[in-house]
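Service request form, structural biology core

Requester: graduate student, group of Dr. S.
Request type: structure prediction, single chain
Budget code: on file
Notes: please return the result as structure tokens.

Sequence provided:
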Amino acid sequence: MPTHLDVLLLLALPASGKSEVRTYLGRLSPAECEKNFGIGKTVQLDDFPYVHLMRRISDELVARGREGPYFRSAALPFREPLDWGTLIELLNEDYADLVADRQPTPASASGWLFDRFDRARAKVGAPLVFAGMDAGLQRELERALEGECRALLGKKNAAHPSTLAGKTVVIEFARGGADQSPMPLPVPYGYRYSLARLSPEILDRAAILYIWVTPEDSRRKNRERTDPNDPGSILAHGVPNAVMYGDYGCDDFQWLLDRSDRPHAIRVEKGGRTWYLPVARFDNRADLTTFVRGDELDWSPADVEGLRAGLETAFRELHAARRG
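Core staff response, request fulfilled:
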């Protein structure tokens, strides 16, 4: 295979197997990554932890008789759809921190995160949450959420390798639109919007691995994986049903591919520039990934081989798309 990928965008509907693929790849040696898939040892970014903290902020404010700024209730989609862009801006920051080897050490992890949320919202034109908040109320929130924010910050900093040389940065996110939506999906829904919000530094290096399942499979697998006692888990969190139908009832991935003027690539336009991101699909409709949620000691050789073979085929296609 050719030189390994610098940045891999791992895209799919919820519960399609993205996090399971990341988990599997993260447990491989550098030699296995290079030999089987043409990637480096993975460094992983994901926007779900930010969604979870946005829900926690909203929960804490609702418990105090206020409106949730990000979510009106735990069962509903984003209150402000532009927060799909907010999440991308946070991923852009995380990637820039990796490249510059910045590891923040704020006195208050919650204050640090609240500032980041407002800065990211400002970039997409969404109203700020904390800039005008009563100072006493914000201190209450910071105290209530400091432990969870400190844990997120710790994981973010711990993920920094000593160098990105020879590594592949895997960036996971899911985007979509309402069930039965006509195409194109309206801004700010879908991959068309979110891909164009990625930084030029990411777009210059990125290729896409799309994990293919049907929306019906996505909803079923979401129900099956949900552990209500572990809502912050990467592998076991559940997406509310209203969100599954309202935000993830379909996606625009195939629509973007069909309208690209270059085969096996998605065209992204931003700031007067154009990128063609090479694409391959990993067909997971037969479910090659669910076993990864279990203890690694219980993984059967047949399951592991099925996943390895499926990914190897997809990555071979991805490298072919890169060669164009």
